[in-house]
Design brief:
Elements lengths: L1 E4 L2 E13 L2 E14 L2 E15 L2 E11 L2 E10 L2 E6 L3 E5 L3 E2 L12 E3 L6 E16 L2 E12 L10 E7 L5 E7 L3 E5 L5
Parallel strand pairs: 9-10
Antiparallel strand pairs: 1-2, 1-15, 2-3, 3-4, 4-5, 5-6, 6-7, 7-8, 10-11, 11-12, 12-13, 13-14, 14-15
Amino acid sequence: MEIFRNDKLIGINNFYFSKENDLMKVKNIVQFKVSVAGIDLMKVDSKSSGIYKDDMLIKFNSKTKQNDKDKFVNLYLDQNQFVIDGSSFSGKTSSNYIIGNYWNHSVVKSAAQISPLSGSVKKQKVKFLGKENITLYGNNYSTLHFKILSSEDLPDDKKINLDIWYDEKTLLLLKVSYKKLGLWEYRLKNYE
């Protein structure tokens, strides 16, 4: 996926999927930089990996450099609970919660999402906005459009408020959009 801010390409959010016996492995690389007049306002370099068995997350790790701050998540499944050691949260939480990197359509069915950068847990409400046709890179898609919002009182900079589009037939993540210091869009350019 390509990351745009105010319609200017600023980085990537790429997912790599592989199967090994009965496990599915998902690697994710996020890199972007926002600069104004040659000054870097925001810079993110993140790498993560997740392991799924029977569509259930059993292990997730990430390391992120956001500006000059180190963030991390180490998560594993233990007796139907996630044990999280993260830079913003350490403890146990429901295994029904989903890592919030959005490739997994189940995020729209979950009562909360776990930050893939810091491990924080944010409760959410999801509204199906309807079917919508969108065009990305000259390709037309019939999509399912959802709105995800925080369902708890949080500071504005911590709230979830985003739109997300999945392919209607395959549930492939096509686009994510939100406003935070400008309009951000993550757009699927290609997939194999």
